[in-house]
Amino acid sequence: MNIAVFCGSSGGKNPLYAKETAVFGEILAKEGHALVYGGGKVGLMGTVADAVLGQGGHVMGVIPQSLEQKELAHTGVSELHIVNNMHERKAMMAARGDAFVALPGGVGTLEEIFEAWTWAQLGYHKKPIAFLDIGGFYTHLFAFLAHVKEEGFMYDIHHEMLIIEADPHVLLEKIKAYLPPRNKWE
Fold first, then answer.
1. What is the pTM assigned to this prediction?
2. Minimal CB count within 10 Å: which of 30, 60, 95, 143?
3. Got the DSSP string for 49-94?
4. How many domains does the chain have?
């Protein structure tokens, strides 16, 4: 399975993020999954790519030309696709990924996983959307999403479609067993 991962181009303040991101990358490779990611060599992006590569796994990076020119591209990956802009990056990652996983990250990470989740709600794809909640990083976000649902801006079925796990093995098992709900307009 090709797992599209969205995560920070920073490592964050807590060393646990990088440690657990590396563990996740190792598990992906050991279980025979390929990594599809944003193509960077820095932060958690570089950590997950290096971990997959370190276990002999396949890594496909997709990076916009502007970031490649700033020498942020990971040139040691199995495949590196240089695209014109962020829209092309996200489209290629969405096309190549069989599932989407968010690790800790900032606004870009959230934007990417939320777009994939929105597409799933609308029925544009039926792929799993997951959060690996390392060290409770997403606790406050999940509380806010429950509030969004409680206030009537999200159906229960779309709130429940998220896979939220702190254990990477359990997360991958849930991804493999995922059955998509009906889309928003069915």
1. 0.95
2. 143
3. HHHHHHTT--EEEEEEHHHHHTT-B-TTSSEEEEESSHHHHHHHHH
4. 1
